[in-house]
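User: Can you help me understand a structure? I only have the sequence.
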Amino acid sequence: MSAADHLNPQQFYHGTRYKFTPGTELSTGAAPRGNQGYGATDKVYYTSDRRLAMDYALNAYGPKGNTDAPARVYQVNPMAGHEPDPNEDPGTSFRADSVRVVRQSGKPISF
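Assistant: Let's start by predicting it. Here is the structure, written out as tokens:
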């Protein structure tokens, strides 16, 4: 590892229809009813591919099961329990016990 490795840390993205503010922590069981709109979550899922995060957001349910809520992508930092998602392609999808929202990445998409 070189000093340059610290200048461009890997970025991670979480796609959803929920609205978050920077600093919000999404954690196991506490993500608002789960990204897909049903029950508490066992992990918080995210990806290194912003386009894939947008696909997840477009297919997600929003607050109260609303699929008309704007799709949003957030840059997030894993806080605890970072590991590859065993159900997705290695190297692009991950899960953790908690992540912190850094910022919204791009504008929300509404239909």
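Now, to help you interpret it: Confidence is low (pLDDT under 50) at residues 1-7. The longest strand covers residues 72-80. Let me know which part you'd like to focus on.
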